[in-house]
Amino acid sequence: GEDVEQSLFLSVREGDSSVINCTYTDSSSTYLYWYKQEPGAGLQLLTYIFSNMDMKQDQRLTVLLNKKDKHLSLRIADTQTGDSAIYFCAEKNTGGFKTIFGAGTRLFVKA
Amino acid sequence: ETGVTQSPTHLIKTRGQQVTLRCSSQSGHNTVSWYQQALGQGPQFIFQYYREEENGRGNFPPRFSGLQFPNYSSELNVNALELDDSALYLCASSPSGDRDEKLFFGSGTQLSVL
Q: What is the pLDDT of residue A30?
């Protein structure tokens, strides 16, 4: 079946790195995404990785994919208070019509 | 470039009523998906529309229905509202042929059923 699981809560100090983890069950997942949701808003795509990659870096964001263990992580370097939000891991198959989301990890950044 | 817009932003209904939510897709996007996000949960896929046809459906009953118009805007209709339908309803558009199949979300409609 299709399932995406994430830890529910993470608290870090401003300036530290944050690492948000995710596991998924569908071995045919082709695309893996990280979306961010701020209070009262919709989801915003942060970054994504294709399943034949194992790492992608985009400014302060680093995505690591372990396809064997079906484990995805998002590292945010130099975390700022503005990074406080809910982060959703999501997966999709090529040609499929739906994106499957996890329940979200609430990141709290202490000044 | 205009992003995805949804209306209304908030809505209060009573059990048994019907509701229509609206979505304008981002310019150039011809695929629209609807998601339900209950409090504290991730978005759950309701259905997707492409070229005015339902392209796929999640695990939602038939009282959830939709439409897509020639300008790619879309409506979500929910009949016989139940208390559990209270949620944030998100519309997302995507361009056909987008290899990475990214979703662009609106800010959602917060529906409360009393």
A: 84
Q: Please name the residue that has the structure tokens 């795509």.
A: A45
Tallying the residues shown for chain B, one arrives at: 114
Q: What is the distance between the alpha carbons of residues A32 and A100, in angstroms, rounded to a whole number?
A: 10
3 state SS of B106 = coil
Instruction: Establish if A63 touches chain B: CB-CB under 8 angstroms.
Output: no
Q: Do A98 and B45 touch (CB under 8 A)?
A: yes
User: How far is the CA of B6 from the CAs of A104, B74, B112, in angstroms?
Assistant: 22, 10, 16
| Predicted pLDDT at A108 | 97
For residue B5, CA distances in Å to A37, A96, A104, B8, B104 come to 16, 25, 23, 9, 10
A24-63 tens-digit pLDDT: 988 787 899 999 999 888 999 999 999 889 999 999 999 9
Which chain A residues are closer than 8 Å to B105 by Cβ?
35, 42-44
Cα A45 from Cα A22, distance rounded (Å): 16
In tens, the pLDDT along B62-72 reads 999 999 999 99
Task: Show the CA angle centred on residue A87, arms to residues B28 and B44, nearest 5°.
Answer: 65
Buried b (16+ CB within 10 A) or exposed e, B70-90: eebbbbbebeebeeebbbbbb
Classify each residue of A95-110 as buried b or exposed e, where b means 16 or more C-beta atoms within 10 Å of its C-beta.
Answer: ebbbbbbbbbbbbebe
**Selected residues 45-84 of chain B with any CB under 8 Å from a CB in chain A:** 45, 48, 55-56, 58
